[in-house]
Amino acid sequence: MFPFVTQFRDRTQAGQLLADKLAEYANLTDVLVLGLPRGGVPVAFEVAKALNAPLDIIVVRKLGVPGHEELAMGAIAPGGLRFLDAGVVERSHVSNSTVDAIIEKEQAELERRELAYRSNAPTADVRDKIVILVDDGLATGSTMRVAAAAVKRGEPARIVVAVPTAPPSSVHDLRAEVDEVVAYMTPRLFFGVGEWYQKFNQVSDEEVRALLKEAKRRQVVGDR
How far apart are alpha carbons 47 and 67 in whole angstroms? Predict the structure, then answer.
């Protein structure tokens, strides 16, 4: 057990603390950890390592409000899945044509990241698996919502959303759509994920690839 913290040092520590709350899933053969690139992957790496579970990714893209990109008005995932928060779109006065343009732009970035991170490797098989979806935090929950919808298509046995920090409202809303939501901390005053980290730097494509490679190497060694 780790002592409770009110602000994470970085994503590595956040992943270690989060993994402690997921201990019931350790060393099970049917667990798969999926990180949301880019920021969720360092957290997911620590979770997968602690649980002795394989690590993969699910690439989703947030649809940010123009001029306030940190505010999500929706998200997209592979397979043409999309989620739009009509309330945020309306309150932000975003036109349909602007929404379409943002979706087109983010779809191109989604495809670029898919190629950059997994090359031509197939996506992870989630059928009958306990899938733990990990990000570095939730704000509105839009990206995690569409990620969960994408995973559901693969018929997993169970979907667990796990994040270091999230507002209570987002946790509540997600619980209606997945089997379990685990959050290390749920502050009532929540202005953004980054405020709960001392170090919240951008994660590069190279870091994501390196972590995935290291996780795969560790899994191969463990299977020997």
Answer: 34
Residue keyed to tokens 């999230």: 166
CATH of the domain at 219: 3.40.50.2020
Mean pLDDT of residues grouped by 10 in the chain (224 residues)? 84 98 97 97 98 96 90 89 91 95 95 88 92 95 93 97 97 96 95 94 95 90 62
Residue 191: the pLDDT is 87
- Secondary structure of 100-112 as H, E, C letters: HHHHHHHHHHHHH
Question: Residue 64 falls within a domain, yes or no?
Answer: no
* Enclosing H/E stretch for 87: helix 86-91
CA distance 72 to 166: 14
Q: Is the peptide bond before 9 cis (omega within 30 degrees of 0)?
A: no
Structural domain count of the chain = 1
Q: Is 19 helix (H, G, I), strand (E, B) or coil?
A: helix
Residue 143 tokens, joined: 């990206």
